[in-house]
Every structure is written in C-alpha cells, then in structure tokens.
Amino acid sequence: MRAERTLLRRAARAAGACLLLSGWAATAHAQGWSVQFEQAQTADGVTLRLVRLHNPGGTPVVLLHGIGANAQEFLLPGRALGEYLAGLGYDVWCANFRYAGRGQLASDDAGESSFDALVAFDLPAILDRVRAASGGARPFLLGHSMGGMVALAWAAGIERARVPVSLRLVLRGGRLRLEPVHGWRMRAEPALAARRAAEIRGVIAIGSPARLRWPLVLPRLDPDLYWDVNVVLSSLAWSPAANLALLPLERIPASEVVHALTVDLPQLPHVGPAVRAYLLWVAATIGNSLLSAQFMLPGSIDPATSYQALAAAADDLPAGAVRQYLDAIRTRDMREAHVLDPVRAPLSYADSHRFIAAPVLWVAGRFDKIANDDAIEAEFSALATPDKTLLRVDHGHLDLVIGDRAPQDVWPALVRWLAQH
User: Fold this and answer.
1) Which domain range does residue 294 map to?
2) Per-residue CA distances from 228 to 55, 144, 210 (Å)
3) What residues of the chain score a pLDDT lower than 70?
4) Which of 71, 149, 210, 247 is placed for a possible disulfide with 379 were both Cys, Cβ 3.0 to 4.6 Å?
5) Percentages helix, strand, coil for the chain, rounded to the nearest 5?
6) 159 alpha-carbon distance from chain centroid
7) Would you call 268 helix, strand, or coil by DSSP?
8) Of 191, 227, 188, whose CA–CA distance to 336 is shortest?
9) CATH code for the domain in which residue 220 is found
10) Count of domains forming the chain
C-alpha cells in the first residue's frame, strides 16, 4: 500500500518537475555544463534523489533546501541560484531530503521524518555520493533555512549514537541493581566536528535560525520589533489543535494541494486560462499583504515567480521536523526529537554550534520573520571557528534566495565568499 501511494504521489506531482526539466538542457549546453540525475542511499534505507549541474573538475557545492520546499528552489527560471553557480564553473548538487522532490526527482516517502534524521542520515548519504562522484573533492555546503540548519548541525559534529536513556532495576547475583538502558539519541562530538571540518571547504547558511527566539509580547507598536515576530508560526506552535493534528502524521501532503491549484485547475477546458490569471492576481495580492510578510518581504517576489515556486518547488512537509520546529518556538530552542528522557537532557542544536571548526558564512535578513537576525547575530558570536562571516541584507526569508533582488544583493556575496575559500 505504501508503494502504491508513493507511485500515485509521484505521478500526480510529475508535472511540477517537468515545468523546469525542459529548460535545463539548453542552458547547460550553452554554458558548458551537463544535467545529471543522481541517487544517494541513507543508512536507514531511504533513497534520496539529487540534480547535478556537472562541471567536470569544478569545486562541488551542495545546495540544501528549506522545509516545505525541494531542490527546485534553486532551479527556478530567472531565480536559479544553482544555474548561476554552475555558470561560474562550480559542480552544483541540488539535493532533495526525504519526503521532498517531484516526479522523477522525488526522494522516498519513508523513514523517520524528524529533523534529526536529516542530520544523522540524509546529509551524510548526500556527501558520500558527492565525494564518490567527485573523486573525493571537498565540497561546500550551502543551505537555505532548514537546509542551513542541517549543514550547521552536521558541521558541529552531531551524530546519532547509542547512549544511556533511562535506568532499570534488575536482580543480579541475588542483589538488586540499577543498570542503564541504552537507546539511539543525538550527540555532539568536538573531535567529530574537527574531522568534518577537514572534509568540507565551508558552510553557507542563508536565513537559517539557530534558535527560534522571537519576542514573546509586543509591548508597543515598534517597527523594528514587528520584524522580529512571526505571528502565523507562533499561533500554530501554541495551538493545541494544530499540535494534536500533527501527532499521527509522517508527512503533511501540501504538494497535492499545490498541484491541484497550480497545475490541475489551470488545465481545465475553457476556464483554465481564467483560473491561472486569477491565481496570479491572488499571488500578487498576497505577496503584498500582512500574511506574506511572515515569510518574505512584501513585494519582493514578482507574482510569476511566486506562482512558479508554488508549482515546482513547494513540497510536502516532514511532520516530525514540523513538530520539532513548533517545540522550538515554544521552548525558544531547537532540540532533538526525543525530549522525554529522565536521564539525559535533550541535545540543543544551537548549543552544539560552539564545536564548529569549518569556515562559516551566515546570511541574515533584516526583515526575516522566521530567522530573526538579532538571534542569528547572538548565535553567530558563539561560533568557535575563527573563520566566520555574518552578512546582513535587507531581505525577508524566501526572497533571500528567490527574490527579485537576490541575484544582485545576495548571490554575488556568496560567490565572493566561495572564491575566498
């Protein structure tokens, strides 16, 4: 039954992938690189699919998407950071985490859906594949939002290991004794962080919150304070109904809804063109509204690009990771999924960043209501690596990568940093 559901989902979502596939070959031929489709196998048996914009001999750059997105976040026409980097000679890998991807690019809907699994299984498998195909070349890691969080966590030496998780009373040799019970948990190892720093050239995290620390109250109407709070996500985090609805889920099937709106409805006979025109009007209206401000700077992404991003790059959400994000909002700290441990406190991802030894470029948007730039600055100062750079730009969250001004305001700064390292 799971296999049938997976096949149906891929068939229903194939059109989103096809929207972009046709343009890649021509661009690649003109710029001297080729498009290849790759796979990576995780230690827990999940198949991940990747798009490689292959420049023979180029330095590998691994692009990691945000939550609710997929690899095509970096391949949108006119906003394709992946193609921009490939055109400069980099060997670009656009990866799909588990539960993400469309059509032939869809990774498996299988395995644990937590943020922990992306750090422990997905990124190591992706890097193994990149190194194997690149002759052991040291890659850069570049992640947007959740992708940057995964890259930072991996660079901090975080792994899954068997550790004591509780105690039990046993009778041995006629005496009662307390013995530890071991289980799989996340842990950070400074020695592992040092070894991983030698395996990569550096990490770029774009709009990646270390901690979801927003002001708990709005004591006054303050324009600066307004940009530090995400009303939508805060409301979801504290909603009992939203949290209960997430409990039985492994994924939130957003892609099917998006596909119906952006592909199925516009293809209806006679009314399809009118539906598409209406949806573009909605995108333009929402794009300048209070709602859109929670996720991007209003007016920063033109309606056609917003529509294209929905049609091709908006994807399912791994429910386990969403539960962790909501917990992070409530506790003001991103913690591992297993938090009810009477013996061992849950790992704090941000606390582990102090072990990072690799070079880091952290990009923060001053109008980013998800990755609070003040919170990023505080966590940035705690990074141990001496080679670290904080770049603040006048952007929101999504527009840091696909905004109208991203190719001028953000992308050249990334390339300068890559060239220096």
Assistant:
1) 2-420
2) 40, 19, 14
3) 1-31, 165-167, 182, 215-225, 256-268, 270-272, 275-276, 278-292, 340, 342-343
4) 210
5) 45, 20, 35
6) 18
7) coil
8) 188
9) 3.40.50.1820
10) 1
**If we measure between CA atoms, which residue out of 417, 360, 418 comes closest to residue 384?**
360
119, two tokens: 């750090």
Go through 174-213 and write b for each residue having 16 or more CB atoms within 10 A of its CB, e for each that does not: eeeeeeeeeeebbbbbeebbeebbeebbbbbbbbbbbbbb
Q: Is the dihedral of CA 293, 298, 301, 302 positive or negative?
A: positive
Task: Assign 3-class secondary structure to 202-252.
Answer: EEEEECCCCCCCCCCCCCCCCHHHHCCCCHHHHHHHCCHHHHHHHCCCCEE
pLDDT at 10: 47
Spacing of C-alpha 316 from chain mean position: 12
Q: In what order do the strands lie in the sheet with 360-365?
A: 34-41, 47-54, 91-95, 60-64, 140-144, 202-206, 360-365, 388-393
Task: Count the neighbouring beta carbons within 10 Å of the beta carbon of residue 363.
Answer: 28
Q: How many CA atoms lie within 13 A of 208 on its CB side?
A: 30
**Looking at the chain, how many residues does it have?**
421
CB-based contacts of 327: which residues, under 8 Å, 6+ apart?
Answer: 237, 335, 339
Alpha-carbon dihedral angle through residues 378, 380, 383, 387, given to the nearest 10 degrees:
-150
C-alpha distances (whole Å) from 177 to each of 98, 163, 165, 169, 174 are 42, 19, 17, 6, 10
120, 189 in Cβ contact below 8 A? no
